[in-house]
Amino acid sequence: LFGCPTVKLNLSSNTNYGLICVRLCMIDEKSSSSILISRGILELTHYKSHEHPQLLNIDEIFNVETILSGICVCIPAGSRLRLALSTSYWPIVWPAPQLSTLTIYFNELSSCTLTLPCLNEKYSTRNDFDLPEICQGIPKNDLRDSSINRFRIFDEISEIITLKINEDCGSTEYPDGLI
């Protein structure tokens, strides 16, 4: 597979909002575990335009196309793929302001499709490429190493969980004096 997979769906939402997360996974034959290959996320109020989002009409069927992230992967022969759909992807994506139930409609006039981009003969399929060339790095002086600490605090009275993250990106001095 080489390129950006796409998924076309016919949906309706029971609220004016909605989110669809599409994940393309390969099922490992030995462990039956799911291996993420690509994913795409669409806030449904943006299905016509990202510049001019619009609230959805409740229970109206509309067609959406979700473009998944680009991939370049060789799938072993006989492998199974899974297309997973969900209405949330926390904590990667902030949730919609209302919980919604999406209904997917399958019909002959406007079918739901998954399009997988396959490598074709116009691209080289050699596997004897040399290692990539890498330029020489810039000499630099690390003044302070980076560090990260995470603290999870649970207040038993209010039952509030607070995650405190202390992140220090360190400090580096470059040859031109930039720190």
From TrEMBL:
Residue ranges of domain Xaa-Pro dipeptidyl-peptidase C-terminal in the record: 1-109
Cited Pfam families: PepX_C
One MF annotation (Gene Ontology) recorded for this entry: dipeptidyl-peptidase activity
InterPro entries (UniProt xref): Galactose-bd-like_sf (IPR008979), Xaa-Pro_dipept_C (IPR013736)
Name listed for the protein in its UniProt record: Xaa-Pro dipeptidyl-peptidase C-terminal domain-containing protein
